[in-house]
Amino acid sequence: MHALKRLFGFLGPYWKPLIATSILIVGYTILSLLPPLFQRQIVDGVIGGRDLSHLVALVAGMIGIYALSAVLNFGDPYLRHTIGERFLLDLRVRIYEHLQRLSLSFFERTSTGELMSRVSNDVNALEQFVTHGTILSAVAALRLIGSAAVLFALEWRLALIALIPVPLIALALRRFNRFVRPIYRRVRDRLGDINARLQDDLAGIRVIQAFGQEAAELARFSKVSQVYYRERVSSIRSWSTFFPAIEFMSALGGVLVLGAGAWMVVRGQLTLGTLVAFLSYIVAFYEPVRRLTDVDNIFQQAIAAAERIFELFDQTPDIQDAADAVALGQLRGEVSFQDVHFRYGVTPRQVGDSGLPDSSGKPGTGISEEPEVLHDVDFHMAPGEVVALVGPSGAGKTSIANLLCRFYDPTHGRVQVDGHDLRTVQLRSLRRQVAVVLQDTFLFNASVRENLLYGKPDATGEELVAAAKAAYAHEFIVTMPNGYDTEIGERGVKLSGGQRQRLALARAILADPRILILDEATSSVDAEAEFLIQQALEEVLRGRTALVIAHRLSTIRNADKIIALDGGRIREIGSHHELLARGGLYSQLYQRQLELTGSEG
Questions:
Q1: Which pTM was predicted?
Q2: pLDDT at 361
Q3: Four-CA torsion 198, 199, 203, 207, nearest 10 degrees
């Protein structure tokens, strides 16, 4: 029920249109209670009394009531469904806004398909709650109370008989809720599994086809679909059993009233007109009872969907601004790592509420099964210095880049920019002065121009072209069908790997960062393009602090400083020639690459 209360709380901003539609429905409800009284008068006064003098007025009155009811019933559905659609729109935007604030660690442990299911399917599941569950539940209750009052006013003995099935219905409803709520939750979860499987397969369709795994993936998708099917059938079995039982108990009340009423009419204890009106009100009484059971079913499905949505809202970012975080001004670009330890899976809350080391200077005591990926990392980057990170896979190079962007916080030690611990500065002010070109290049399903402007939305055309030329991307862009306005497909599928990376580099250049991180930025380009980009980078990096991660050691010979990592520890620091002369890790890696490529040093 907590989820339901929170869900009603989300309806607060829509109170004005909700009041308007409530007025319409209340008016419609009151009018719907009047016709049986006219019927009673016609049966007892006109037919029983053989008096036609009031027949026309009574018939006209009923026609007027039905006409006014039709007018009220016209505006109500429009308002309710408009409110529902607006609610879904605002809720989706709020979820998306919240997701944007969550840390990378959340997205690394949550599948994209699952998130899409919550933003799309679970939000859609709330439409019936807004359009039928909220207002109509109150109206059904109002109509139930109103018709019950009229029943007791007409004949209290028959009214008591009419109430006999109500406790049975209430008991059945309570048992149904306890049984069906977990089923509806499992249905939502299994639908999320289908979306996650589908998203994963579509994203990897080239790999699936390349390895001929279509049949295997079909079997996996069929399996999760079968599980979803079984849960759906279970839910269908539940309500298809429950609702006929409610219909039977409602009909039982009507039959009992008809039998008792007929007995009373024959004995002269009740007029025929009163019985006719009473039977009409019985329908008016049990119709909202059935409506409330329908609404309850809507509520149970809404609760299952809302619980999954609120699970997202209850996620808090691992990385967020401190209460007293300061905004960084124009950076000079000085970077230092001081006794940095890091492991994935430890949140700032585990190492202290502030995310900073304790007063003893010791690592936090957070418990994690993840091993440390960085140990005792200490180095300094002067403003405008180009520093390269090298080492075997898993050495911790990308983790250092992640810490510099503050995608994560160290579990011990500190990362500083211009003397500021990154945990004390505003994230936005840091990241707008840091640009990253990743090995796994991501481009949006949009035009070349839109992808480049992501780095600087207000850039001029001249700046755009200059950045593309600096990355040696302009030459292939102008040969495309629509030049800079050419659509490049999902993740840039219409481009080669080298073209995608050059666009990513141009995007970073256009952002004009003070700190530039290149994570294997030239790994997918051919030798000629790599040579051209290296020449461009010499000009682009001038005056900027740059952290370059490279496996091709030939690309970082001219770096001001090279840091060789292994096992999450710094093994040596120096220039290309200094490290070669030492004959250590860097020299071994360099010689190995020379042997593999057949090149000369």
A1: 0.71
A2: 38
A3: -30
